[in-house]
């Protein structure tokens, strides 16, 4: 029974029970229309209201400045690995083309010749690889535009015995120099779901007047702490952890990257330069122009996200996401303290300086397979579910998303103490 269970799954993840109860109702009959929410048109006034309300709740929670737009796509988090590359490379190319055209005038052949050279020599995308999701994003960038254009500005495994678990200090990063025009984007994953590594704060070397365009994957720590949105070009996340159910990704994008402020390169030009042309459903200008309704948006998924976020707005009032941050921090603190109380039995995987408040990764008895199995079996008996670590790294992972209650966390803490005594 649902009320007897605390679910610590990493995503899909728990949703607030009242939202699911309401969801069950609206699936059958939305606002007494006699049809359910999955049946109504994405172009209906109801759907438009849901979109507007969901955007408003997110903008309120995160204090999103007016010069940012919010987009909904069906891309999943992984689709945004590609979308960020397609869109920002396209903008970079068009900027360079315009500049060269200014210098050489109407001579198209000369413009193309110079542009090809500039792309060849200067196009760089910087990736901070701090865990398996940023690694995947960097690999997708290499697949799309070629490895020579992808600069791994930091690889956290290098100074950590080949494993993720630390973030190299910024003085060790090799970002593409701003003086040389800078990179087309700098990418990082704010919270690494598999490895339990979270950026403690926004990197200082990505700040400043001539800061590069920063893209951040916040799939697994979205709306769990305050974010200075103005520092980012693009923030994205799949909904299926803190926000809602699987099916949509949310993108917060600086409007200066959209028309009429920025122009994407033409598909012909990109093809000419041997750069790939992205699918239209990942094209930010197209999605923005159509208020995320270029094609059929799963409005039910947007509704769930809207309910979850409106719930947080109501709960935390003027504190907004700061209220959630306090709760998330407190729950994470309780779990880490319980783990650290028993150092003979448990060991937190990532370094203390970067450990995630959302995905708490630890080992039992040095990773002893039988002990970890016993830990999971005992947890399950107590209704503490979803604690198995990602298959690629093993161990235990307690995902402390927003819908995990403080009471559920206390039950986990009690179990951690109890298991350690018997171990
Ligand atoms: N980024 C992060 C941080 C994730 O945790 C995940 C999924 N767990 C993804 C991206 C990929 O998301 P999706 O499965 O929606 O493509």
From TrEMBL:
Keyword Transferase (UniProt): yes
GO CC terms of this entry: cytoplasm
Pfam family, one: Aminotran_5
GO MF: O-phospho-L-serine:2-oxoglutarate aminotransferase activity; pyridoxal phosphate binding
GO BP terms in the entry: L-serine biosynthetic process
Keyword terms: Amino-acid biosynthesis, Aminotransferase, Pyridoxal phosphate, Serine biosynthesis, Transferase
Involved pathway(s): Amino-acid biosynthesis; L-serine biosynthesis; L-serine from 3-phospho-D-glycerate: step 2/3
Domain Aminotransferase class V: 7-100, 168-412
Organism domain of life: Eukaryota
Substrates-to-products reaction catalysed: 4-(phosphooxy)-L-threonine + 2-oxoglutarate = (R)-3-hydroxy-2-oxo-4-phosphooxybutanoate + L-glutamate; O-phospho-L-serine + 2-oxoglutarate = 3-phosphooxypyruvate + L-glutamate
InterPro entries per the UniProt record, alphabetical: Aminotrans_V_dom (IPR000192), Pser_aminoTfrase (IPR022278), PyrdxlP-dep_Trfase (IPR015424), PyrdxlP-dep_Trfase_major (IPR015421), PyrdxlP-dep_Trfase_small (IPR015422)
Top-level class of the enzyme under EC nomenclature: transferase
Signal peptide range in chain numbering: none
Cofactor(s), by name: pyridoxal 5'-phosphate
EC number annotated for this UniProt entry: 2.6.1.52
Protein family according to the UniProt entry: Belongs to the class-V pyridoxal-phosphate-dependent aminotransferase family. SerC subfamily.
Protein name from the UniProt record: phosphoserine transaminase
Species of origin: Ampelomyces quisqualis (Powdery mildew agent)
